[in-house]
């Protein structure tokens, strides 16, 4: 790629906000077998793997890109990868990373247990050092267990053996990158970065792994901006958890406000962390951050203390031959650039936790992101436990991305279907709200996007009415929407029972969904015949929202077609259905 990047960017590197230079990409051809009888553990497949297929990782067996293309659901599958690893430097550990495996994964290396993880959407890692053979062949074996249970977070993945409504072919197994790196036992585990533009500071919360009493450790941090040094400092790494605040005013050329991160001005600071034991370098990590804040005051959403009008587009992140897995990093960048070209300043990533490289490029290019959890569809203790565990991992892993300005744990009462009346479900959403705020008190949280809200920082409403005149009439009177006396779109309430409007900003976070007549698939409302009819309806709806003063923005459904859902501004293979500049002209009638 020839596009502008951050200082430590490496093409294809799966974790671009925590970069080490020595790494090995394990994507590509793996051995593969279905295990419908769940016999693999008893028969010790981790020792004697009966490969029946090869698969192109990280594409799931359901996709054409995998080389298998079998859409039938299989509840248990196995992978094997053979490789020879050069010996790691003395004292180093070999860490195997899986960016995403759906849903339960158990890993063995050379027949020895290496680790396990539950949850489809988050990264997990295994220290495989003690299981490796030096200078001889090694075998990585992964067993994956999936289900069609609605108790596990599954997003838009179908569970009935066929596509139905807005649910699509399931995703089973490895669907994000697999890679490894060699690191010292003594190393940085993570760094949490929290900007504070009002105080012109950034806080670093460091976690150090492998600390010993005898280690004489220091941690050096250097911040640069466009190649110029901003500040550097050193501190004694004498505890596993360290916190420091750094001033961001020194060494920056020009007025401070010119260096903040925002759409149109996605300024990013590079930062390097180096951990020493005495004079020996133990770890070196490159990263970046953006100085920005998102806040709410007087019913308005503010970015960097300036009112923000959000022009978002719904993005489900599907591709024809690869489904939930992006076909390439370039494909992610092209989607982002297309959204910007159409005049959107952000997106709502719907029912999916996207590849970290997508968030990287949103950071670099200045595209706002609402990060949304994949839903479960039933409610009991098991569902709550699974959801909570995985959602907290999502928030922790995505925390440092400046592009993320809103957390969306729930959508349209999915998984909390009786929230209007059920106190237990209401309390669950309250609990998730407060847990999210305990990790990240700086971003808004929407607890039930579109429908019956409990505690929520933004009041978001979904409405697929076909005409702008009707939309304007329904929403022009703020009190009729926020008063809680009736339904706002003829069938849904804005708040669950016992909750009321507290002055939150209001947004229309789903609307549109217009489809062309095509003889297959579906959209919202009547399908249109011509480009002119599409643009007239799109413009009518969008302008109606723009003309309502108290509404802080909107999210149009959606950027691309997805399998049977053909209401995208682009086809599934990313061909525009109408000229992008005409969408842009309508979007830019209002907003920054």
From TrEMBL:
Domain of life, per lineage: Bacteria
Task: State the UniProt keywords alphabetically.
Answer: Glycosidase, Hydrolase
Ranges where the Glycoside hydrolase family 2 immunoglobulin-like beta-sandwich domain occurs: 187-292
User: Is-annotated flag, keyword Hydrolase?
Assistant: yes
| Residue span(s) of domain Glycoside hydrolase family 2 catalytic | 295-585
| Domain Glycosyl hydrolases family 2 sugar binding positions | 25-180
Molecular functions per Gene Ontology: hydrolase activity
UniProt lists the family membership as follows: Belongs to the glycosyl hydrolase 2 family.
Q: Name it.
A: Glycoside hydrolase family 2
**Species whose genome carries this gene:** Paenibacillus tritici
């Amino acid at each position: 790629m020839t596009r502008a990047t951050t200082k430590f960017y490496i093409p294809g590197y799966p974790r671009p906000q925590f970069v080490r230079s020595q790494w090995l990409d394990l994507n590509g051809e793996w051995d593969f077998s279905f295990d419908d009888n769940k016999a693999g553990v008893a028969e010790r497949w981790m020792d004697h793997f009966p490969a029946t297929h090869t698969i192109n990782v990280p594409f799931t067996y359901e996709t054409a890109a995998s080389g298998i293309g079998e859409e039938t659901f299989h509840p248990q599958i196995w992978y094997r990868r053979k490789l020879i690893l050069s010996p790691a430097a003395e004292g180093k550990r070999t860490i195997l990373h899986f960016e995403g495996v759906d849903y339960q994964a158990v890993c063995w290396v050379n027949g020895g247990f290496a680790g396990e993880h539950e949850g489809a959407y988050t990264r997990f890692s295994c220290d495989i050092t003690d299981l490796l053979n030096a200078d001889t062949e090694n075998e990585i074996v992964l067993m994956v267990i999936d289900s069609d249970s609605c108790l596990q977070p599954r997003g838009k993945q179908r569970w009935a053996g066929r596509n139905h409504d807005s649910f699509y072919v399931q995703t089973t197994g490895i669907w994000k990158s697999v890679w490894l790196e060699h690191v010292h036992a003594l190393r940085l585990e993570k760094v949490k970065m929290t900007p504070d533009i009002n105080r012109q500071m950034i806080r670093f919360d460091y976690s150090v792994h492998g600390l010993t009493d005898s280690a004489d450790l220091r941690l050096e941090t250097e911040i640069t901006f466009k190649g110029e040094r901003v500040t550097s400092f050193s501190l004694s790494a004498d505890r596993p958890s360290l916190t420091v605040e750094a001033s961001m005013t020194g060494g920056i050329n020009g007025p401070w406000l010119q260096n903040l991160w925002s759409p149109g001005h996605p300024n990013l600071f590079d930062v390097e962390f180096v951990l020493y034991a005495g004079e020996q370098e133990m770890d070196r990590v490159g990263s970046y951050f953006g100085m920005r804040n998102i806040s709410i005051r007087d019913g308005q959403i503010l970015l960097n203390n300036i009112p923000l009008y959000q022009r978002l587009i719904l993005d489900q992140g599907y591709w024809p031959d690869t489904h939930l897995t992006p076909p390439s990093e370039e494909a992610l960048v092209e989607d982002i650039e297309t959204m910007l070209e159409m005049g959107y300043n952000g997106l709502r990533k719907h029912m999916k936790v996207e590849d970290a490289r997508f968030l990287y490029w949103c950071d670099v290019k200045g595209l706002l992101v609402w990060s949304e959890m994949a839903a479960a569809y039933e409610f009991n203790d098991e569902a709550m436990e699974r959801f909570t565990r995985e959602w907290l991992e999502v928030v922790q892993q995505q925390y440092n991305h400046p592009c993320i300005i809103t957390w969306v744990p729930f959508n349209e009462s999915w998984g909390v279907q009786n929230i209007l009346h059920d106190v237990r479900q209401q309390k669950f959403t309250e609990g998730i709200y407060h847990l999210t705020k305990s990790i990240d008190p700086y971003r808004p949280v929407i607890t039930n996007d579109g429908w019956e809200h409990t505690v929520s920082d933004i009041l978001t409403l979904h409405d697929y009415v076909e005409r702008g005149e009707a939309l304007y009439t329904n929403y022009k009177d703020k009190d009729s929407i926020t008063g809680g006396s009736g339904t706002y779109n003829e069938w849904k309430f804005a708040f669950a029972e016992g909750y009321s409007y507290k002055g939150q900003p209001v947004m229309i976070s789903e609307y549109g969904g217009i489809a062309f007549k095509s003889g297959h698939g579906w959209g919202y409302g009547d399908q249109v015949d011509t480009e002119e009819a599409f643009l007239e309806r799109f413009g009518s709806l969008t302008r109606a929202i723009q003309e309502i003063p108290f509404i802080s923005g909107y999210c149009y459904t959606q950027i691309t077609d997805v399998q049977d859902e053909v209401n995208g501004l682009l086809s599934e293979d990313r061909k525009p259905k109408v000229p992008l500049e005409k969408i842009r002209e309508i979007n830019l009638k209002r907003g920054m």
